Amino acid sequence: MDFETFRQEIEDYLPIDFYNEENNTYKAYLLDALTENWENEKYQFCILATNMLFMSYLYKGFWFLIDKNIEEVDKKISVNQKYKVCELYDLSDIPEKTFIEEYLPLYKIGKEKRKLIKMLIDARDSCAHANGEIVFDQEDLKSKFQEYYKAIKDVFNRHKHYFYTAFQDALNHYWRSELYSKTTYEFLDGFCSKEKVSIKELLELYSVLATITIPTDEDYVQKQLSVFLIKYYLSNRADGKIGYEIDNLKEEISKFCAANPLEIDRIVSRLNDESAVSVYPLITQDELDSIIKITESDPSTIRELSLADEMPPSLVDSIDLSKMSVKDISDRNAYLKATL
Asked: Which domain holds residue 325?
């Protein structure tokens, strides 16, 4: 694996922000050391920096699992209190090979794969001792980059199920208890801060949003709006690697208003609340006014939906369902069944 690809990949797997100044400085220091030693052809010192970055990734993974009520994790902590840490780098008190041997089975990583990963520690050790010879050249290092990357990717793919579950639980709690007391920006910022998310995790979150089922209830509009906003905030946090920009948000909000004309006031109120706290630019008031004007002037928009419950079924049947939201259609179907 070439250097530029590896450096970007390993950075993307690490937390964007540790929410700890010393840890952030440490990450930057290691990435700089990796780059400078590569540029100066000090390849063995690159191995030292790479291994520290690799272990940082593994420590973050276990630290994430500590408060997730996972039986195997709780059992491991009860047996060895060294695993009960508040800060992820406190796990460095455990010998690296011991940590690898005891942590990776949580992901069903077998004995032989763990053996190969522990050999990366052996390679680091061979660079850290004064043995009188230069062991690694550039091609050797590229090969080691590939081995480290393969190990990281394997752990990540096995770990992301826990990450999805944690996000879904957090989102459900937000929808259930905080939807009207906390903005979506504050919700996502709190989640990212608590879990010390990486760019790779943000990319996975964005992809999984499409699979989330939004309950068709009285809060449907606010919940769907929060999903639009989460996609936009994720894209901004991911340093442009998602591609859901402000224009994409505007387009979805415009269509959403057209499909839910009776909810426009609540949508506008929500966006104003978001604008007050978000560090990312949102839809301006002029843009909102334009969306509202277009929606209200469109003759195909059904502004009389609030009166539909009083209409006979024959009249309800005449409504153009193609202009209605999923929630409105569901509500209409329930009405029709009740009147048969």
From this structure: 304-340
Q: Are residues 190 and 45 in the same domain?
A: no
**Could you tell me which residue, 203 or 318, shows the higher pLDDT?**
203
Is the distance from CB of 198 to CB of 13 less than 8 angstroms?
Answer: yes
Q: What is the dihedral of CA 292, 293, 294, 295, to 10 degrees?
A: 50
Say whether both 119 and 183 belong to one domain: no
* Sign of the C-alpha dihedral computed for residues 291, 294, 300 and 303 taken in this order: positive
Whole-prediction pTM value? 0.84
With 60 as the cut, is the pLDDT of residue 208 above it?
yes
Give pLDDT tens digits for 11-30: 999 999 999 999 999 999 99
Residues 18 and 76 in one domain: yes
Number of folded domains in the chain? 3
> Which among 221, 237, 218 has a CA at the least distance from the CA of 269?
221
Query: How far is residue 21 CA from its own chain's centroid?
Result: 22
166 lies in a domain? no
